[in-house]
Amino acid sequence: MKLNLKKPICFFDLETTGVQIAKDRIVEIAILKINPNGSEEMKRWLVNPEMKIPAETTKIHGISDEMVSDAPTFKALAKDVKEMITGADLGGYNLLKFDVPVLAEEFLRAGIDIDLSKHRIVDVQNIFHKKERRTLEAAYRFYCDKALDGAHSADVDTRATYEVLLGQLERYEDLENDVDFLSEFSKHRNTFADMAGFIHFDEEGKEIMGFGKHKGKRLDDLFKTEPGYLGWLLDADFPLYTKKIITQAKIRNQFGG
Length: 257
Fold this sequence. Notes:
Elements: E1 9-16, E2 26-34, E3 40-46, H1 55-61, H2 65-68, H3 74-85, E4 89-92, H4 95-109, E5 121-123, H5 124-131, H6 136-144, H7 154-171, H8 179-185, E6 199-201, E7 207-209, H9 219-225, H10 227-235, H11 240-255
Parallel strand pairs: 1-4, 4-5
Antiparallel strand pairs: 1-2, 2-3, 6-7
Helix pairs in contact: 6-7, 9-10
């Protein structure tokens, strides 16, 4: 089967120092770019995270401090990564909850303001969970009838994710071979304004708090009634992209934009 594409789609996978979006850094990134004519381009980089990689994390993905000591930082790679995904849709496994927010954070740290939410995103995990609810290894065995050797290596996981999506399209007649449909189908039930899930959109498309004592309240209202609370969020240890959304709302309320 061939994926029906109107534009390129970049499947990507990250290996990181941990699972905290605001704090942890990328140590490996792999991107598999599939073009509408079926041609492929694969890029993989080891990345110096500029912090220690915890031993328990190294046990999972096998990447140690020594392996990345001479690798480029993400800031050094950011323009190459941006160039590869510009004009393309995005695909991956657990992309919406983790990889996209982490990549957005790294771009902001590198001084590149790229809005990844503008890309159409196909999250193969969400399709899988809506259909079967298992891990990537199980998904690969289920859809591709093969064992996944080398799991937690970014390039292996990236290609496996692409193959799983092709298997899903073959298995489920109600899945359309169309990135618009797949992107919509694989979305979260709640639309996140900040990708990390701290800020949501309500039914009218207004930003609302997604957690805490003000959960469900609009940012516009909180700037009028609880400006100190939002100020605390901007000073606290939240993802840069979350702070960007709050800052945009602050400017809008101050200047009527």
